[in-house]
Specification:
- The complex is a heterodimer of chains A (345) and B (322).
- Chain A is an alpha/beta fold and 345 residues long.
- In chain A, β6, α7 and β7 form a beta-alpha-beta unit.
- In chain A, α1 packs parallel to α7.
- Chain B has a single domain, classed as 3-Layer(aba) Sandwich (Rossmann fold).
- In chain B, the strands form two sheets. A six-stranded parallel sheet of chain B has the order 2-1-3-4-8-7, sandwiched between helices. In chain B, strands 5-6 form a two-stranded antiparallel sheet.
- In chain B, α8 links the parallel β7 and β8.
- Classes of the chains: A alpha/beta (345), B alpha/beta (322).
- Bound molecules: thiamine diphosphate and magnesium ion.
- Thiamine diphosphate sits at the interface of chains B and A.
Chain lengths: 345, 322
Amino acid sequence: MVLTGTQSESITARKLTTAKAMVEAISQEMERDPSIFVMGEDVGSYGGIFSSTAGLLEKFGPQRILDTPISETAFMGLATGAAVEGMRPIVELMFVDFFGVCMDQIYNHMAKIHYESGGNVKVPLVLMTAVGGGYSDGAQHSQCLWGIFAHLPGMKVVVPSNPYDAKGLMISAIRDDNPVIYMFHKGVMGLPWMAKNPHSLGPVPEKPYEVPIGRAAIVRTGNDLTIVTLSMAVHHALDAAEELTKQGIDSEIIDLRSLVPLDREAVLESVAKTGRLLVVDEDYQSFGLTGEITAVVAEKDPRLLKAPVSRLAIPDIPIPYSRTLEYAVLPTAERIVAAAKRVMA
Amino acid sequence: MDNETRLGLYKTMVLSRSFEEAILRDYHADKKPVWDIGAGLIPGEMHLSAGQEPVAAGVCAHLTSDDAISSTHRPHHFAIAHGMDLRLLASEIFGRETGLGKGRGGHMHLFDPTIHFSCSGIVAEGYPSALGVAFAFQRQGKDSVAIAVTGEGGANQGAFHESLNLAALWKLPVVFVIEDNDWAISVPRDASTAIRSNAVRATSYGMRGVRIQDNSVEGVWDAAKTAIEKARAGEGPSLIEVHTVRLWGHFEGDAQAYRNDLDSLIDPIPAYANQLESDGVLSPEMVESIAQDAKSRVEDAFDFAKSSPLPSAAEVERYVFA
Ligand SMILES: Cc1ncc(C[n+]2csc(CCOP(=O)(O)OP(=O)(O)O)c2C)c(N)n1
Ligand SMILES: [Mg+2]
């Protein structure tokens, strides 16, 4: 099993927030490879609205850290073109919710060129973007939407949940010869202006290292129930697991970390052991990640299951603004506990 | 321009500012000691329009509730100038069941069909739907117009350019408004846009374009009068760009470390009060009573909002479909 944030604690004492871990990864790679540049809205003097590029302008200057106009189609396409010609762009889409204005450049161009060219043209770039809700930002600024990117062929999709993985996955994404969509949840960044999630600060080795794309992590081992999840919901699942232990339920938690490629083996191994599966997702439910993970088990051998699969995701409604409504649809620890008990019943 | 109109413009601006000062107070009041954007009675991103009131007041003075506005992530000044019910507006911002969107929308998602008002949190994406509103007005034989608003940053978005072309081609009754407040979050205009005036772009798309340089409410009023009359008369779209000012942060909590112009900002409301006083239209007593009047309307709306019920979690799935 690959190192996870928790497992690496013994190796290093230095702690960083997820945002700082991302910046360190980008910075170290930029020192190594002059073909890397960073581009997006407010990535320069502001340092990224979610601090994903803080300090990079000061270090690398405006030739390599570029603020763009609010012209996502133009700069997404620019990233693709530059990558085709041998550069390694890191392009930020401020919120994933804004993909609508530039998706053609992403899924019809960035993602398909390698295949259409019969492998003759490579598009090595990282598209990083903020996801997730929980702070009343309404229906256009709170979505996860990773299911859409994972559905469309030609893009790798990674979703770190903690500082250690954030650094390692960023380095792997930069070194990968494919377009990699790197989706960071605002709630795990460790931002000073958002509710503090204790897991947004964690040990991060100073030296560059890779977390392989396509490998899940077991963040908690258990025997009764497998909870498959990712991103911010990993932390809610960990909190839920503590409560479930008190109620005599021993859960195993899988942090997928990558959606494309998907670590199907990790899911199957765990379900073979526990016989029960709960999939927790902050993306919309229908036609998405929860259905895909369920299909992994159903296709392999439904007899692995001792009970029907349960899914906890955003119901198929726009994310509401008012806190009472938003928290009724987010996969909180309490809702995970309730769903887990249904699987065990 | 008669005195009554000038006073009206002033009152509209004061009401809008008064509303936003109350938001500012309540938004920050319960985010202490550690500032958390998701905490408090008003959570989430909050984009206030202080400084940009002349644009909304000058344009909306020519509208009735039969005309439409498609606004931005920074919508309050246009909502208020267009006559939105302050109680319904405040309640939506407080996430209450009595709000315009029953707490589902929030401050960037205000929809009021009684005054044909809408807005979007996606930059420039309110432009295309304004075309459709104008198209419907035209087909329905009405002389109503649609106002489409964006910031100068949004004028670099594809939707802006497609909308200008289509509106000009089909001679739709739209007035495109650009609020140039010099900044798109931290990016100054000269770092985002190769030309100095969007009036040039309007011309190139086949419509009249003007740029108002000094955030003058009367300048906006004049330009809007011409543009709106043309649209009502079936003479097609126009564009008005106003060089305005963003007095506060992009959103609340924005430290504005990137900003070097904070010492030179001119607040248009006291500036207009001075002008009206020296023209004998306004007295210090009137300034005071207009402010008090605005304040009491705003406090009434806020009291109503705060005493309104929150939406019920059991109804979270309601309103997805008609
Ligand atoms: C398509 C899209 N891209 C980016 C954003 C993020 N964003 C919100 S407001 C803003 C700046 C807008 O600047 P401008 O159009 O000048 O309006 P202002 O905020 O100055 O009123 C940005 C980049 C967005 N909401 N939508
Ligand atoms: Mg602006």
